[in-house]
Prior knowledge:
Blueprint: H1 19-29, H2 45-49, H3 54-63, E1 70-71, E2 77-78, H4 82-101, E3 108-110, H5 132-144, E4 149-153, H6 160-166, E5 172-179, E6 197-202, H7 208-226, E7 230-235, H8 252-269, E8 274-278, H9 284-300
Parallel strand pairs: 3-8, 4-5, 4-7, 5-6, 7-8
Antiparallel strand pairs: 1-2
Helix pairs in contact: 1-9, 4-5, 7-8, 8-9
Amino acid sequence: xxxxxxxxxxxxxxxxxxxxxxxxxxxxxxxxxxxxxxxxxxxxxxxxxxxxxxxxxxxxxxxxxxxxxxxxxxxxxxxxxxxxxxxxxxxxxxxxxxxxxxxxxxxxxxxxxxxxxxxxxxxxxxxxxxxxxxxxxxxxxxxxxxxxxxxxxxxxxxxxxxxxxxxxxxxxxxxxxxxxxxxxxxxxxxxxxxxxxxxxxxxxxxxxxxxxxxxxxxxxxxxxxxxxxxxxxxxxxxxxxxxxxxxxxxxxxxxxxxxxxxxxxxxxxxxxxxxxxxxxxxxxxxxxxxxxxxxxxxxxxxx
Length: 303
């Protein structure tokens, strides 16, 4: 899922969350066999309101400038086109879920921006305006009657917004591996919500072994024990060793490994229902290949 509206959001020429990120991903996905590229619709107010305070979203609509930029926090900006870019991201993942549940797609990846997992119910932060995975989980429950949804997040930054939205909701499992310490400063192992949150903090300079051990010994067993009807992935590729915003040492093969492990579970337990959306990744030379290998693993899972 993609829409060119996602290229219009412009937080500034020096901002790491640039349209070039998405262009790098789209270019890398050219030639991947077994995928169908579909246009992302705009999310509806009903979809947004299941995860966000509509008063908050109205304030974003009111703040979008006709020209230039408006600062929402020190990292998060609005430009002309930012609202539609965010709406396409949330619309993409909801539409992807509809396709998967209707068996018109086996699984899906949403190539959109800006990212979403830092956005809380009533607050934009960390480059994020709408929490796409939270909106998707609520959409799956409201429209497709999903009983339990697992959100798996391997972005290098903790998804504080996702955790905050669901930490008192036992119908949603949230598992996050991330560097600690690092922005936004949340995601400690003792943050467990109502027993539905599992944080896997990794110290700086952690690499493949630490990442895979955390998921193999803790994250994936939690997924199996929870037994969800659907898996939603916050797919951030900024844990790669070359990323400028963090200090983990992951390789593209680590994203292949974790995607395969997630898909192996989904094949056995939830009819292959996996929907993924792009979060972080700020080194263009690494982002494209990592996203491609992630999508290739999603396709491979359906063979």
